[in-house]
Amino acid sequence: MKILIYSAKDFEIPFLEKANSAGHQIKYIPERLTLKTARLALGFDIISIFSADDASSVVLERLKDFGIRYITLRSTGYDNVNLVMAKKLGIKVANVAGYSPHAIAEHAVALLLALNRKLIQSNEQVSNYNFSLSNLVGFDLNKKTVGIIGTGRIGKVITRIMHGFGCKIIVYDICEDHKIKENYDASYVNLKNLCKQSDIIFLSIPLTTQTHHMINKDVIQHMKKDAILINVARGGVVCTEDIIQALELKRIVGYGTDVYEHESGVFFYDHSKNKPKDTFLQSLINLPNVLLTPHQAFATKEALTNIAETTFYNINCWQQQGSGTNELTQKELVG
């Protein structure tokens, strides 16, 4: 089958090449899928896209006109794909479910540790031969209360790690997991109480209409003033403007995030010579109590291997006229 890989990154291509054991004909392009670049899919059977690609209804209609029948995502999240329209057009869509929850969870904890122990600031000081500790005081994680919003695959791993630090765990999710309660002595609470009690809050939920801007000024007002918020979910789960205001007014003490609400077309690319005119992004970069990474939590060898192998598993299922376990449009039909 002829496959076009949109948003191909140099670091992922070797993993995709290795996973292509069936010898599919592949073309890699760095361009994102947009209404303008959809024309590049002409002549291909399948396209593969990433989280920053646009598979909205108008783009899907264009792809259908160009003969695309299948779309495989190289990500777990699929909020960038209009599944209702895809099903209507007869385009099958599959994702990479749970490719490496450990990669994401470990990065979340790395953000917390770097923020709390002021590692970035410390490194900058030492580079200038400033060995003062005056601005480098953090706190013990042991016995702190950690609130985890979202107890799916990633949330479970975060729970396990933070339990290992000796933290008290409280969680919030629409579905309770009894194993989390039994194994880690965790308590399910409502969102308001989680915010009131937590010293540290992790976000590990998908972006949906229900979770969009879940963390806003009304929710932030219930948080402790010395709370640290860590986001490895999606940028749109928080209202960026409200987060910036809370940080500036010292309503919370720190924000560590691997995602950004308006990251599409910005993250994954080098803009050092052409900086985006985005005041929110600039504010996040400038704030000393923010640690922002460019959606890199998934970037481990293990995760990239799983993503590549699952991508071609999805493709091979379609080639064999089957529907794999990751097919989202099939799940939609069943549901």
Commentary on this structure:
- With 335 residues, this protein is α/β, with parallel strands linked by helices.
- It has 13 helices and twelve strands.
- Strands 8-7-6-9-10-11-12 form a seven-stranded parallel sheet, with helices on both faces. A five-stranded parallel sheet has the order 2-1-3-4-5, sandwiched between helices.
- Helix 9 links the parallel strand 9 and strand 10.
- The longest helix is centred in the last third of the chain and has 19 residues.
In angstroms, what separates the terminal alpha carbons?
A: 29 Å
Written as H for each helix and E for each strand, in order along the chain, the element string is EHEEHEHEHHEHEHEHEHEHEHEHH
- Average pLDDT across residues? 95
What helical percentage do the residues reach? 25-40%
Segments where pLDDT lies below 50 for 5+ residues? none
